[in-house]
């Protein structure tokens, strides 16, 4: 059991595997309506518990009609609700009505210019007339609609004559060959608003800043007089979840557990304890450094490291839970993107890394789950965090991987290497704050390489480890760019690290994007 969805009406987004599916849901919430993502091939209409005003068909990598390509479920084609088809979604819609598609004819990627022709605009779509006739839109496709069926009118074409906007003459079906959800589409928001408010006539029902009270109410209803055990990592999601639960239920009903595996940032355990104390959340820290170091001794394989840490973490948590039978619920900071597997996050994709985080606790604990953020995005959790009064140094923290410094010390781990890396990392992070770069990057950290190089300090030869600095830009960590930090700043950081951290005599900057590299080195 987990908390029910926050509201029972809104929009359905059918996912066909586009990298932008999550973004469509976020955009709808930003304009004030709740949206949920479901598998685009789902064969039954989800009508029992969710009232939807309209359907959005996402883009996707398939080619309509190819073997294995996802198709439009019969209940969608038969639905009386307005439908907005985006790219692949538009092609599905066009094909379902007998239109002609073509594959690989006009590959367009990037900005395109289109012109509207409103002469035959259907009545239900009248509000589109207020959009600028000429627009720049963002395209990303290899297939398109060559000729829609006569039941559709073509409302816009690009300069290359690609059919860009179609509308059914009677049914409220609109198809877009571009992405209104991405920022590069100049009037994307206006288009989404026209669909949501004018064509679907949906009421506004979502305001991230208003979620706080509703969440508190739902937690009270679900947990009642129960007691919640909450695993925390010091990161944004679990911290906000722990405080929200505490505010909803009171201090005596919520207990946070923090496992110190000895692979945290410098002084992190004390910092987390101080933060929780000032937030008024009960916290117990389990000091497991010795146990983790023992099991990790001599292990160099990244996956083996990750598996050992995941297992040890669960063991530590289970041991605590077994000794404290008073708990009825397990709190987790699970986010919406973690829940919808099919949404661009590669259901059935190859395992690149075995992820471990505080949300990965086993179900055999026999505690009921409370997941207050199961339907929310990270930026919405940050809004709740701010509304609860959590300071920016906590709410706007960079992400930190569950296995911690173990995946940033390449090769075998020992306490001395952890100390060296903590020192270097702390210098980098402090300087990022001091120069105002911290909030300009998604994540920044130091990595310790098992590579020795020769240096000279004073008159002496040194032969010590190399430290790599990594700073990336990203919006969700699925892809990443290289942080554009000034070379003079990096030189300063490198100089301070080599001067102050005994064990490092050379510093390099990682200039690889993701893909092909990942953000963490292991
Ligand atoms: P990668 O290295 O896969 O990282 O490009 C993407 C994002 O995920 C974080 N990360 C993790 N987070 N448990 C977590 O909670 C993990 O095991 C884990 N491994 C990587 C990483 O820091 C980056 O933000």
Detailed description of the structure:
- This protein is α/β, with parallel strands linked by helices and 522 residues long.
- It folds into three domains: 9-199, Rossmann fold, CATH 3.40.50.880; 208-395, Rossmann fold (3-Layer(aba) Sandwich); 408-509, GMP Synthetase, Chain A, domain 3.
- Helix content is 30%, strand content 25%.
- The protein contains 14 helices and 18 strands.
- The chain has helices at residues 21-31, 74-77, 88-96, 188-199, 211-223, 236-249, 268-279, 289-296, 302-322, 336-339, 378-387, 392-395, 415-434, 487-500; strands spanning 9-15, 35-39, 51-57, 83-86, 100-116, 134-147, 152-158, 163-168, 173-176, 228-232, 254-260, 283-287, 329-331, 368-370, 443-457, 460-473, 481-482, 504-509.
- It has a nine-stranded mixed beta sheet with strand order 2-1-3-4-9-8-7-5-6, with helices on both faces. A five-stranded parallel beta sheet has the order 12-11-10-13-14, sandwiched between helices.
- β13, α10 and β14 (368-370) form a beta-alpha-beta unit.
- The longest helix is centred in the middle third of the chain and has 21 residues, at 302-322.
- The model is unreliable at 342-349 (pLDDT under 50).
- The protein binds xanthosine-5'-monophosphate.
- The site of xanthosine-5'-monophosphate has 14 residues, from loops.
């Amino acid at each position: 059991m987990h908390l029910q969805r926050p509201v029972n009406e809104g929009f359905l987004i059918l996912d066909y595997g586009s990298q932008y599916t999550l973004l469509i849901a976020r955009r709808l919430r930003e304009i004030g309506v709740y949206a949920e993502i479901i598998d685009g091939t789902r064969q039954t209409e989800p009508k029992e518990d969710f009232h939807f005003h309209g359907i959005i068909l996402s883009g996707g990598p398939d080619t309509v009609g190819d073997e294995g390509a996802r198709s439009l479920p019969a209940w969608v084609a038969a639905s009386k609700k307005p439908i907005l088809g985006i790219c692949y979604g538009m092609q599905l819609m066009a094909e379902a009505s007998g239109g002609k598609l073509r594959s690989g004819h006009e590959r367009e990627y990037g900005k395109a210019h289109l012109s509207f022709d409103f002469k035959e605009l259907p009545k239900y779509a009248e509000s589109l007339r207020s959009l600028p006739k000429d627009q720049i839109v963002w395209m990303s496709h290899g297939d398109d609609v060559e000729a829609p069926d006569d039941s559709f009118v073509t409302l816009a074409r690009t300069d290359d004559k690609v059919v860009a906007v179609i509308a059914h003459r009677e049914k409220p079906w609109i198809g877009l060959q571009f992405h209104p959800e991405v920022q590069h589409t100049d009037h994307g928001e206006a288009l989404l608003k026209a669909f949501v408010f004018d064509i679907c006539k949906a009421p506004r029902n979502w305001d991230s800043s208003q979620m706080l009270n509703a969440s508190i109410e739902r937690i009270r209803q679900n947990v009642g007089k129960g007691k919640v055990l909450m695993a925390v990592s010091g990161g944004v999601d679990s911290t906000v979840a722990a405080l929200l639960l505490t505010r909803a239920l009171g201090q005596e009903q919520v207990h946070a557990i923090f496992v110190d595996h000895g692979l945290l940032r410098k002084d992190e355990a004390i910092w987390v304890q101080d933060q929780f104390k000032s937030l008024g959340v009960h916290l117990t820290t389990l000091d497991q450094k010795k146990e983790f170091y023992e099991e990790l001794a001599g292990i160099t394989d990244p996956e083996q490291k990750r598996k050992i840490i995941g297992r040890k973490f669960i063991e530590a948590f289970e041991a605590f839970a077994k000794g404290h039978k008073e708990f009825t619920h397990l709190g987790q900071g699970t986010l919406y993107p973690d829940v919808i597997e099919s949404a661009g996050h590669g259901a059935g994709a190859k395992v690149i890394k075995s992820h471990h985080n505080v949300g990965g606790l086993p179900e055999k604990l026999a505690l009921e789950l409370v997941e207050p953020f199961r339907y929310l995005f990270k930026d919405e959790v940050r809004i709740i965090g701010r509304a609860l009064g959590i300071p920016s140094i906590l709410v706007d923290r960079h992400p930190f991987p569950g296995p911690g410094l173990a995946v940033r010390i390449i090769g075998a781990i020992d306490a001395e290497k952890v100390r060296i890396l903590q020192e270097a990392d702390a210098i980098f992070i402090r300087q990022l704050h001091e120069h105002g770069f911290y909030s300009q990057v998604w994540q920044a950290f130091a990595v310790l390489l098992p590579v020795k190089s020769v240096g000279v300090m004073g008159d002496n030869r040194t032969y010590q480890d190399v430290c790599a600095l990594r700073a990336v830009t990203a919006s969700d960590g699925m892809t990443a760019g290289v942080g554009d930090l000034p070379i003079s700043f990096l030189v300063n950081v490198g100089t301070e690290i080599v001067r102050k951290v005994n064990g490092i005599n050379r510093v390099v900057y990682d200039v690889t994007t993701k893909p092909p590299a990942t953000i963490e080195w292991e």
